[in-house]
Amino acid sequence: LPIVLQLVAQGQFRVLKLPLGFIKVLQWFFAIFAFSTCGSYSGVFRMSVECKNRTESDLSIEVEFEYPFRLHQEYFDAPTCKESNKERIFLFGDHSSSAEFFVTIGVFAFLYTTAALCIYVFFFEKYKEKNKGPLIDLVVTGVFAFMWLVSSAAWAKGLSDVKKATDPDAVITMIGACKEEENHCREVHDPVMSGLNTSVAFGFINLVLWAGNLWFVFKETSFFGGAPPLQEKPAGADAYGEKGAYEQDPYASNQGGYQPNYSQEGYDQVCVGLGHIAACHHDNIPTSVCLYITYRGHSTGRAMASRGPPLPSPIRCEVTGSR
């Protein structure tokens, strides 16, 4: 229990308020509704066969069927209206493939959304690291959106066939005694199909949720805003030695090091840029080293001091050559 409380305390539950996390929560709930309403269904319908000889009649023939709707395995015994004999009649059709496919997609969608929500809450920073998490999420979301379309359409067609196969009026035509005019057959109770109708509706709702969530997952990838802007490399780490001393400039004077000219009134310094060499001029500058950092080839930039107080401004810099 303490470990659970610690994980909850460290979780970033604010992500669930964002469209990315909130839609995942909806997907989690509607996936449960979809596979549970279909996978837990069981139905029954009743018929009556009234023979000319009332003693041979059966006024309550009950037929049960359930998921996965292998109706060709479901049967009932009906009177033949001939000396109390019975005939065994099987329903028609096997609709298990579409029903099981629909339930399978629902279960896998539930498992994936559960894992995704855990990652969103507890490992969201790692999820966005190197763009791998959003890319995987985008691909899986697209696959599930397509699978919900296929499975929902297939199950809608399968449900239509199940309704036809379990229609009492259609089943009565399969009873031999009902083909004789002297006998009277009728339906007593129709099967309740509201749960299965709801499962189809939940399937298409899941399709909308997963297809719509593609946009919000796509926004988390690097493709949405393009490549991130390039950051100018700081000059301080490369321009200074291990102890903060100024490294020798390959473009300095022939004497092999930086040689400031103190005889000038304006204290000239050699500035090292990312792509240029510039001369930096300023009056009354203390003994320090000026690093002039150019910005994409322009002669405007900033100055830094490796020793002494910061350089006063304004500083006038001129490009004197290219590296």
From TrEMBL:
For membrane topology, the record states: Multi-pass membrane protein
Give the record's subunit note.
Homohexamer or homotetramer. Interacts with SRCIN1. Interacts with VAMP2; the interaction is inhibited by interaction of VAPM2 with SEPT8.
Keyword Transmembrane assigned to the entry: answer is yes
The compartments listed are: Cytoplasmic vesicle, Secretory vesicle, Synaptic vesicle membrane; Synapse, Synaptosome
Gene name, per UniProt, is LOC101078298
Q: Which PROSITE patterns match?
A: MARVEL
UniProt keywords (A-Z) are: Calcium, Cytoplasmic vesicle, Glycoprotein, Membrane, Phosphoprotein, Repeat, Synapse, Synaptosome, Transmembrane, Transmembrane helix, Ubl conjugation
Recorded protein name is Synaptophysin
The terms describing its cellular component in GO are:
neuron projection; presynaptic active zone; synaptic vesicle membrane
Q: Which InterPro entries match?
A: Marvel, Synaptophysin/porin
